[in-house]
Amino acid sequence: MIETADYPAGGLICQASVARPEGAGPFPAVMIAPTIRGPSALERQVAERLAGLGYMAVLIDVYGKEQQDLAPDQARAQMDALLADRALLRARLLAALAFVQGLDGVDPARIAVIGYCFGGLCALDIARTGTDAILGAVSLHGVFAPPGLGPQAPITAKLLVLHGWDDPLATPDDVLCLTRELTGAGADWQLHAYGHVGHAFTNPAASSPGLAYDAAADRRSFAALTGFLAEIFA
To answer: The Dienelactone hydrolase domain covers which part of the protein (predicted)?
Structure first.
């Protein structure tokens, strides 16, 4: 069962979707950063699967409560505005993290963040702050551009990048730049690349050239994700 909860992010009111596991807790928490389209049924299904594994799963929102169910051009405009102001994006992500830390039933010492597409960038950006408030971050068919907000702090969170090698939005050169960045920041990182797989490989509705669902990569990436969560929360 999914419940919603509002939280402040600067002058914006955002809306989280929370899937709670059975029992009293406290539970390890997994923040989920959505794709360019904002919170959707796809990420809510992921939240419910993770809650079934015993995690408090929290789908976050960086566009605001009034910016739900956006048309593609509207979603693109919202994302582009945040990509042009990575400090604002960072502030909204840290507001979401603070909300999750204070959520009833969450063990604040055991929090991870995962993200899909634009949300993969969001997951990396939280780790890039150098915060020790998360144990790990996972990017699934994410994009990688660094925030350009000054010298990179040491990254303390463990990182997992789940990537389609033929992703037109994250080329092999982009992957190499990311790995150099993470190595320079002293991060404990790992990369799983899936051959002959493009962007959006976890989305059954994706069917465009270079952006298409891949059942094997979807299955393998979820197994890698859950194995990673079990490791960092142990």
So the answer is: 15-232
How are strands ordered across the β-sheet holding 56-59? 2-9, 12-19, 56-59, 27-33, 106-116, 136-140, 158-164, 189-194
Check: CB of residue 183 under 8 Å from CB of residue 152.
no
Closest to 175 (Cα-Cα) out of 144, 218, 148, 137: 144
d(CA 20, CA 104): 10
Write down the pTM of the prediction: 0.97
Q: Is the sign of the CA dihedral 205, 211, 212, 216 positive or negative? A: negative
Comparing CA positions, the residue from 180, 184, 58 lying closest to residue 130 is 184
pLDDT tens digits, residue range 1-43? 899 999 999 889 999 999 999 998 899 999 999 999 999 999 9
Rounded to an integer, what distance in angstroms lies between the CA atom of residue 210 and that of residue 142? 14
Domains, in order of start, for the chain: 2-233 (3.40.50.1820)
Distance CA 140, CA 123 (A): 9
Whether the CB-CB separation of 147 and 200 falls below 8 Å is answered with: no
Measured CA to CA, the distance from residue 102 to residue 13 in angstroms comes to 16
**Using omega within 30 degrees of 0 as the cis cutoff, is the peptide bond preceding 26 cis?**
yes
Going from the C-alpha of 184 to that of each of 16, 39, 154, 191, the distances in angstroms are: 33, 32, 8, 16
Fill in the DSSP letter of residue 10: T
